Amino acid sequence: MSSAADRVPWRWLAAGRTSRRLVLGVVFVALLLDNMLLTVVVPIVPTFLYTTEYEGANSSVTSAQTEPPPPALQAPPFSSMFSYFDNTTVTVLGFTSAVDLANRTESIHPPQPPTSSPPPPSGCPEGEEFLAKENIRVGLLFASKALVQLVVNPFVGLLTNRIGYHIPMFIGFVIMFLSTVMFAFSGTYTFLFIARALQGVGSSFSSVAGLGMLASVYTDDFERGNAMGIALGGLALGVLIGAPFGSVMYEFVGKSSPFLVLAFLALLDGALQLCILQPSKISPESTKGTPVFTLLRDPYILVAAGALCFSNMGVAMLEPTLPIWMMQTMCSPKWQLGMAFLPASISYLIGTNLFGILANRMGRWLCSLIGMAVVGISLLCVPLAKNIYGLIGPNSGLGFAIGMVDSSMMPIMGYLVDLRHTSVYGNVYAIADVAFCMGFAIGPSTGGAIVRAVGFPWLMIIIGVINIAYAPLCWYLRNPPAKEEKIAILNQECPMQTKSYSAQKTLRDFPLTDDSDVEAENVE
Q: Which residue stretches belong to region Disordered (predicted)?
């Protein structure tokens, strides 16, 4: 009986390792934690740097100005002496009368004229020039993660083709855990920058391996779209929880508290990966994948990648600039800086799950086109807000529209590889993640400089117009042809069809051979 009871957990574990739902759950949790760490720093870093650098410097200057007067100006302990010989008071050397002492003090410290500039409103931070410079520094810190991820992604795609998806997923967990702990105990801008860059390495391993694993497990196009929608729901939930969680914990508990909670959750995710994914097992792809540079020459993949890049660039520009703009114009307390992103996060969570199913019915190209147009309109409306409640509408539309684009473009990337290349997904999802990271690299790094040059409203106008102008290009994804086909196999008037390409070997044998015309006639 005991031996049979002991074998039950092993049977459950063996069954779990063959379950697609548990694989989806592992990817969901990995994306959740990655994006919680991505956004939890958004409300913390601007106020933390302002508190430690600007207010800390001013407090030291103030303490230096309020030093006690020098000993020479102080009255000596025995300034006069009474003589009992003739009943008179004798003045000793070094005595200074109170009137002389006051006159000398006024000559050294003349009265300050009243300043013409009125004090800032109650609750508003001082130091306008410091906040303007901080836009650039915070933007570069946020962009460092995406820049590092941009460089590492192609190598991770090649690595997944050689050793499979399990080991890279676990490497991503280890690096993410180290980055989270470093965030918790970093007290300077330099260490925060290093922690953010280290997060980019871990995020690259987790996202590329996770999405590639889902595409290889869910071979049917409709099921893959649903699975991608659920996985992106984890991404959305991380974005949803991160910023409000960070602002509330920082305000009421302390800077290290949100990162320590995330480090504990990351340990649970690592235990789950050890049980389900077998990270010590090397399982290379049986088929050699299409090279990255070949995929980058595919115009349809470039259009899909561009949609991912520009739609996410808008919210990437908001992350470093919106909290500082709120501090300057709305005098917002710390907890509101993270809560401002809450409507966008909730609507993104709804959009990814809703359009993971609807996009396949209405056409993913149309869903992406509408989504990019709504992204542009929402960004144009952000500067019109006068308080935090005015941000609810624009941010809700922004999150919902980005959810439409992401839940449509991620399955399209796998569809294009099935249709036009070899069905190995590591490289194409490395490209998708590169596009995503380019938005989060270019957005924060340039957003701060643009805000300092022309102001926050013009920044929103520029990126909003770019999204609206790019939206019509999604029309080209309406019905992409199979690569190098001599006769079009898809009618241009028909919407994108839902097909499974796991058993269609003919679509993988590209480039076409000389006997392809004969084979096509036999099929007809």
A: 106-127
